Amino acid sequence: MAENPFFSPSTLPYKLPNFAEIREEHYLPAFERGMTDHLREVEAIAGDPGPATFANTVEALERSGQILKRTATVFMSIASSDATDGIREIETEILPKLTKHGDAIHLNRALYERIKQVATEDPEEAWLLEKYRVDFVRAGADLSEADQERLKELNEELTKVATTFSQNLLRASTGSALVVEDVKELDGLSESAIKAIEKDGKYVLPLLNFTNQPALAELTDRQTRRKLYELSVNRAPENFDLAVRLATLRAERAALLGYPTHAAYSVADQTAKTTDAVEEMLGKLVGPAVANARREAELLSEQAGFPIEAWDWSFYAEKVRKARYDFDGSELRPYFELDRVLRDGVFHAAGELYGITFADRDDLAGYHPDVRVFEVFNADGSQLGLFVFDPYARPTKRGGAWMNNLVDQSHLFGELPVVMNNLNVTKPAEGPTLLTFDEVNTAFHEFGHALHGLFSDVRFPRVSGTEVPRDFVEYPSQVNEMWATWPSVLANFARHHETGEPVPAELLEKMKAAEKFNQGFATVEYLAAALLDWAWHKLAPGETVEDAEAFEAAALERAGIAFDLVRTRYRTNYFAHIFSSGTGGYSAGYYSYIWSEVLDAESVEWFKENDGLKRGNGDHFRSALLSVGGSMDVMAAFRNFRGRDPRIEPLLERRGLLT
Ligand SMILES: [Zn+2]
């Protein structure tokens, strides 16, 4: 057998992982050797007889664990984008071991003592040193022996329960699917959509992982809508108890670490810092958002001719969109061809702003034939990094869209970034791939994350690119969405795939007008989820929850967000963001999206005040904000960019919440 490709660095350009050589049987041996090597390196650092210096402690830790890092980076990427049964089995086996491995390092007393002895004058080193110190404290380094033992048990159980939660959810997507025998009940769905779900003479509509299923907008039969909706909100009922277990374990863990709640623990190292700050922010939005949604509901009931129910919302929202705004989103699709959107839209906007250029590297392979690789250059022709693009949905890919790094930029290793974007666009059987406007917007959003990774210009991998607080990371990506509808960008990419004609101006006008509609729904659905996450993680240690569904209802009621017609985007039983990862994930962090949007709305305003899409503006955003990654206080970086602290008003205006 040839040598395991993870044992030595890739020799491909930019150290792109050599996907052509990597096979499933390589992962477990590479993880095992990676963890063994890493522990040995860490022991050597902890046992160094000389005085602790930045170089022999913090920098040495940054350099350690290379095999493990290479393996985990590729494995996590594949586990999201192309998870075969074999990959899922490895995942179940390896996650608890990785949790234990992390504890073995963070609870190494000799190592922690040495970190505390390090002193440095250099600001970038001092920032990283403090990060390490905080990481160790937050992982339990200061606790007594007995408390550390309890912490390890808690971490292990959290990982196990969360894995079960997420596997239940995966099964429920088809296990709780809507099964229909009479095709008439599916009236409203397109012929190709119906064909795609036909199975042995029946029709099986799987559940997507959020409350409001897209088919609800099209199904004309009210009973079918109701059935689909109820299956959606009641899926994986066994997860209610697991959620209670996770929330109580997290509360105990927080108490052990010296925090009153998991929420307090969770925000302490975020830009929000305190639970009060988060509650104040969310509190400002709830009242106006619910009022907005109630007004929309009246409009929908008027259109329907009867008082609508939750399962009717999307269907009549579409009707109102057509009646009031004369807008049908599907008319735009012929103008949004994937390749054109990417090259003449996403890349074009980045070229105008930052002067960067792109070259196809078809000679470099991904892990799937649909994956494409591009080389990115600075305006002066120097190399910037690689961009890997995986646009299509497949049964082995998880839902949603995301960015991840395959190689972190760092001066320490002299490495340039390799960043990746995943989308979930349906691949047509033949012909061009035509996108919805939402998908266009998502492509710009994810590329905003990619730019954050590509422009990283820092010394240490730990703080490279998107390694910033969770409640900050969505900010640069949200800003990049603004270019999707910027007139000169739109004119450049939105052309009919057959005739090359530009998209008619009046269609765009209608789209803009219609965009404001249904904002109440979107904001309430999101806020309810953020407040539900919050309630679960404000549990006091030792507090018990008898009935998870009753807890959920009471929490939403108390927060002032309970509204029968607009349920939370995720109920407790399928809230994967907060319950499918034991110690990480977005627990007590779902507020982050709207928290980041404050900075986003402020920055969009800045670009508009300064003449929009031009080099000087892009260069300023890049040098003040994108290039520093997490190597300094990110709010100081924001002030360097914007010239002052953020205000909430631009966000309120954008969301139609100014009273
Ligand atoms: Zn994002």
Low-confidence runs: none
- Give me the number of helical elements: 25
Helix content: 40-55%
Structural class: alpha+beta
User: Which CATH class of the domain at 333-514?
Assistant: Mainly Alpha
Shape, please?
globular
Fold and architecture overview:
With 659 residues, the protein is of the alpha+beta class. Among the domains are: 13-142, Up-down Bundle (Glutathione S-transferase Yfyf (Class Pi), Chain A, domain 2); 333-514, Neurolysin, domain 3, CATH 1.10.1370.40. Helix content is 53%, strand content 7%. The chain is built from 25 helices and eight strands. The protein has helices spanning 24-46, 55-63, 66-81, 85-106, 109-117, 123-138, 145-175, 191-196, 222-233, 239-256, 262-267, 275-304, 313-325, 338-354, 437-454, 474-480, 487-493, 505-515, 519-536, 548-558, 576-579, 592-609, 615-626, 634-642, 649-654, and strands at 178-180, 198-199, 202-205, 357-360, 372-377, 383-392, 402-407, 418-425. The strands form two sheets. Strands 4-5-6-8-7 form a five-stranded mixed β-sheet, sandwiched between helices. Strand 5 (372-377) and strand 6 (383-392) form a beta hairpin. Helix 1 (24-46) runs antiparallel to helix 3 and helix 4 packs antiparallel against helix 7. It is globular, with a radius of gyration of 25 Å. The structure holds zinc ion (ZN). The site of zinc ion has 4 residues, from helix 15 and helix 16. Residues 445, 449, 474, 477 line the site of zinc ion. One of its GO terms (cellular component) is cytosol. It comes from Streptosporangium minutum.
